[in-house]
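does this look right to u?? pyridoxal-5'-phosphate version
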Amino acid sequence: MPRPIHATIHTAALRHNIERLRAAAPGARVWAIVKANAYGHGIERAYEGLRGADGFALLDLDEAERVRRLGWRGPVLLLEGVFEPRDLELCSRLNLWHAVHCDEQIDWLATHKTHQPHHVFLKMNSGMNRLGFTPARLRAAHARLQALPQVDEISLMTHFADADGPKGIAAQWAAFERATEGLPGERSVCNSAATLRHGHDAAVRGDWVRPGIAAYGASPDFPEHDAAHWGLRPTMTLASRLIAVNALQPGDSVGYGSTFVADRPLRAGVVACGYADGYPRHAPTGTPVLVDGVRTRTLGRVSMDMIVVDLAPVPQARPGSEVTLWGMAAGGAVLPIDEVAQAAGTVGYELMCALAPRVPVSVAE
Ligand SMILES: *Cc1c(COP(=O)(O)O)cnc(C)c1O
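got this back:
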C-alpha cells in the first residue's frame, strides 16, 4: 500500500464557485485565474471544473500552451504580458491576449511581425506600485498602442492592493476612473475580494472580473468573512491516515524540540503528513485538523513526514482512521483551508500552491 497521503480536486466545487462569482458580478465576464498551475490544483485537473468561465488568465507561456492543448479556443490572457520580444510570436500563433505594463513591451510590439493584430490589456498602476503605467503616463501609452498596426484592441486594467481590507478600493478606483475617463475599451479591475464585495456595482465590476482564490474555495478576506459566508466550496482536500496511536502520560512530550508536553493522560495519533507534503511547518500546537471527520488539533512541531494529533475528541480513532488536513472529509465535514493557514501565519493561497509533488492527486466530481 502506498503511503496514505492524498489530495483530491473537486470538480463540482470549482464549477459551483465559478457560478457563484458570476452571480456576484452579473453581466461581467469571468476570467478563471490559473497561474501557479491553477493555484496548485494542476491546470489539467482543474480544467473541467473551470471551463464554465469565459477565459483563462495566467502568467507563463507554458501554462497558456497547456490551456490551448486542452482544447480551449476562447480568450487566454497573460497577466504580466510577455517577458521578451520573441514571446510575441507565440502570442500570435496561439491567439493570446497579453497585458502591457511598460514601455519596453510596447517597443517589442512595434517591431513584431504578425498578420494577426493583438488584443492587449493596458495596465495602470493605480497605487500598488508593482506593474503598470502611472496615471500621468497612461494616455501616452494608450496613444502609442493605438497607433500600432500590431494592435487591434486595447482593454484597460488595474489591480487593487486592499480590496480585502479596511482601506478598500476607493482611492485606487478613483485614480483609475480619472485616468481612463473617455478612453475606449473594456475594463477589468476586480480580483476575488473586489468581485465578491463590489461586483454588484456595475461601474466597478466592469467587463471582466479576475477572481483567483475564490474560485478555489478560499475566502479572500478571511477572517472577516469565511468561505461559507461567500457561498464558496473547498476545491482541494488534503487527506491522510493515522499510522500509529500512542498513549501519553503526564510529562511526556511530542516531536522535535519537545514543544508539546502532556499535562494529563492523552491518546495521540501519528499522521502520515509533514512539511515535505506541503503542510506548513510553522503550524503550531492547536492547528485544527479532522480525524474521522471530527475536529481536533495538532500537537507539537510538524516534521518532514509526520504530524501528531490529539485524539481526545475521537476515542474510536485507530491506525487507518481518516485524517483531513484541509478540505472535505468523507462524511462531508469541512475544514476550511483558511483556518489552517491562519493558524500557521499564512494564507490559503500559499498552502494550495505549496502542495508537494510527492503527494498523489486525483480528480473527483
Ligand atoms: C492573481 C491575480 C488575480 C487574482 O487574485 P485573487 O486574490 O486570487 O482573486 C487577479 N488579477 C491579477 C492581475 C492577478 O495577478
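The mean pLDDT is 98. idk if thats expected tbh
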